[in-house]
Design a protein that fits this description.
The chain is of the alpha/beta class and 373 residues long. It folds into two domains: 228 residues, Methylmalonyl-CoA mutase (TIM Barrel, Alpha-Beta Barrel), CATH 3.20.20.240; 62 residues, no CATH class. The chain has 13 helices and nine strands. A seven-stranded parallel sheet has the order 3-9-8-7-6-5-4. It has a two-stranded antiparallel sheet with strand order 1-2. A hairpin with a 5-residue loop joins β1 and β2. α8 runs parallel beside α9, α8 packs across α11 and α9 packs across α10. The relative contact order is 0.14.
C-alpha cells in the first residue's frame, strides 16, 4: 500500500489555498519578511521548494582566546608568538599590522592574520600585494568577522571574502574566519551556503573558523549571553566548521572561569547532544535547504557585482553599505522589531546604561549594539 495514493500531496497552489483559508483575514504574503541580510523568510516551506545543497561537515575543534590548543593549525595567542623556543610549536599564528608582516622574513611554519587589512583606507592599498605577501608564510587567516562585527551583512562580507580569495594562490593553506550571530536558522543556512561554495567551487583548501559574535552581546545582563552563545555555537556546528571560538560570556578574555564556562558549551553539544555523530545533520530540511540556496544565490550575485568595480570604488561602496546596514540594525532594535533581552527589552536602569553608550560610528569599526541604543 502506498500512502501517497491514500493521501495525495497538494501542490504549491493547493498548499497556499489551504493556508490562506486557515489564516482567514490575514494575507499570507504579509507574513513573508526579510531578515537583516535581505533574505526572504517564509512561514511555510515544503518539498516543492526543495533544492538540496549537501555539504560535508565535521565536529569543530575548540579554539580559545585564553589558551589556543596545539593542533594541526597550532593557533597561539599573539603575545605568546615571539619567544626563544619557537620550535615548541608546530605552527605559529601571527596577528600583526601589515607593515610589520611585510618586513617579516619568510616563515614556513606561520599562519598570518593582517590586523589592519579592513581598516579605513588600508584595503585598496594592501589587496594588490596580498598574493605575494602571503606566500612568505605557511598560510593566511582572512578575518571576515571584523566586517560582520562592524555592521556588514553576511552576504556582503562573505562575497567580499570570496572576491579576495580568488586572487590568492590556490596552493596556499587558508583559514576563513567568520562570525555567527543569534538569528538561528539564517546563521545555519549562511554557514551551510559558505561550506557549499568552498567545497564545490575551487576553494577546497580552505578551513572554516567561526567565532560567536560580539556585536549582539549584553554588557550588563551577562548571563543572557550564555543563551546567545549556545544558540550561536549550535548554528556553527550544524552549518559546519573546522574551528570554533566561543567568546567568554562576560567578554572577559583574561578570566579563566569565564573562558571555561563558555568552552563547556561545545563539550555539552558533543557529549550530550551528539552533534558529532552526523555529517550535515540538517540536509533535507525544507526550510534550511531553501534558505541555504537563497544565501548561495545572493552571495554569488553580490560577488559578480564586486567584480565590476575597481578596488577604491569597491571599498567605498562596501563601507557605505555596511554603515547603512548598521543603522538599519540599530533602528530595528530601537523599534523592537529585533529583541535582545536585557538590552532593548527588560533593560537595566538608563542611568547605568549611559556609562556604555556610544555614538554611531562613521567608519568600519567593531561595535556592540548595546552601546548604540
Amino acid at each position: 500500500m502506498n500512502l501517497k495514493d491514500l493521501f495525495p500531496l497538494p501542490n504549491s497552489e493547493q498548499w497556499l489555498k489551504i493556508i490562506q483559508k486557515e489564516l482567514k483575514d490575514i494575507e499570507y504574503q504579509s507574513l513573508i519578511q526579510k531578515n537583516d541580510d535581505g533574505i526572504k523568510i517564509s512561514p511555510v516551506y515544503h518539498a516543492h521548494q526543495d533544492l538540496e545543497q549537501p555539504v560535508q561537515t565535521v565536529f569543530p575543534e575548540y579554539v580559545s582566546y585564553y589558551d589556543f590548543p596545539l593542533s594541526e593549525i597550532g593557533f597561539l595567542e599573539t603575545q605568546s608568538t615571539f619567544h626563544d623556543d619557537k620550535n615548541a610549536y608546530q605552527t605559529l599564528f601571527l596577528s600583526l599590522p601589515y607593515q610589520t608582516l611585510k618586513a617579516q622574513p619568510p616563515l614556513d611554519n606561520a599562519y598570518i592574520l593582517i590586523q589592519d587589512f579592513f581598516q579605513e583606507n588600508h584595503f585598496p592599498k594592501i589587496l594588490p600585494e596580498i598574493p605575494e605577501l602571503v606566500q612568505k608564510f605557511k598560510g593566511w587567516v582572512l578575518d571576515l568577522s571584523y566586517l560582520q562585527e562592524s555592521g556588514s551583512n553576511n552576504i556582503d562580507a562573505i562575497s567580499l571574502g570570496l572576491f579576495i580569495l580568488e586572487k590568492i594562490p590556490k596552493n596556499l593553506s587558508i583559514v576563513l574566519k567568520t562570525s555567527v550571530s543569534n538569528n538561528f536558522y539564517a546563521e545555519i543556512s549562511k554557514v551551510r551556503a559558505l561550506n557549499y561554495i568552498l567545497q564545490n567551487f575551487g576553494f577546497q583548501n580552505i578551513k572554516l573558523w567561526i567565532k560567536t559574535a560580539e556585536i549582539n552581546k549584553s554588557l550588563l545582563h551577562l548571563e543572557n549571553n550564555l543563551i546567545r552563545l549556545t544558540s550561536e555555537a549550535v548554528s556553527a556546528v550544524l552549518g559546519g566548521c573546522h574551528f570554533l571560538t566561543i567568546l567568554p560570556y562576560d567578554l572577559n578574555y583574561k578570566e579563566e572561569f569565564s573562558v571555561r564556562i563558555s568552552s563547556n558549551i561545545l563539550k555539552l553539544l558533543k557529549h550530550e547532544s551528539y552533534l558529532d555523530k552526523v555529517s550535515d545533520p540538517l540536509r533535507g530540511s525544507y526550510a534550511i535547504e531553501k534558505l541555504t540556496q537563497s544565501y548561495t544565490t545572493q552571495i554569488f550575485q553580490q560577488l559578480l557585482f564586486w567584480k565590476t568595480l575597481d578596488q577604491n570604488d569597491l571599498w567605498k561602496i562596501f563601507t557605505e553599505k555596511s554603515l547603512e546596514n548598521l543603522q538599519k540594525i540599530i533602528t530595528s532594535y530601537q523599534n523592537q522589531q529585533n529583541i535582545l533581552v536585557g538590552v532593548n527589552i527588560y533593560p537595566y536602569a538608563k542611568e547605568t546604561r549611559q556609562e556604555i553608550k556610544l555614538e554611531l560610528p562613521k567608519k568600519l569599526n567593531p561595535i556592540r549594539i548595546a552601546q548604540l541604543l
